[in-house]
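Lab notebook, bench 4. The sequencing result for the construct came back, and we need a structural model before the next group meeting so we can plan mutations. Quick request posted to the team channel:

Model the 3D structure of this chain.
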Amino acid sequence: MQTGLGRTGELWAVQGYGVAPDVLVTAKGLSGGLYPIAAAVLGPRAGGWLQEDGWAHVSTFGGSEIGCRVAREVLRICSDPALLARVRTLSERFGAGLDAIRTRRPFLVEVRRRGLVMGLRFAHPEGGKLMTALLYQHGIWAIYAGHDPSVVQFKPGLLVDDALADEILERVDAALGMVG
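Done. Here's the predicted structure in token form:
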């Protein structure tokens, strides 16, 4: 769920890996976090039975007209080729900036990146936890990865402009400067 729609540079993150899932589940990102909605998108293998009996599936809380309208607008925005191209451009900008920071801050040992979903891995085994607090002090919301506390999850917004991207990189560098 954390990849959101378009955040990786593709509408659905699985598209970047050439995967065609039988079932794709989406929720919060489907409405941009604005309205409660969830959906299960079924491929032919998993959903073929609906061709025979489309009424065989019902949902107690299904049919939210407002949620569907919000989701349709989010899908329109997030599938816009210009927006997805912009995400890829931003990813390159952040990647170059973070690589430059890494040359000055050797305790930042790796920058993992798929679009605007990034992981910053630190030499210290608890580095992600430590950086969560330092980044927050500099106005950057990021959280350490629960499966690897040496990594902080770093996910700038889709609509960041170049000036804000540069400011975010400056804040990241300033936070890292507090370490040593």
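Residues 14 and 20 are 7 Å apart (CA to CA).
Will bring this to the meeting.
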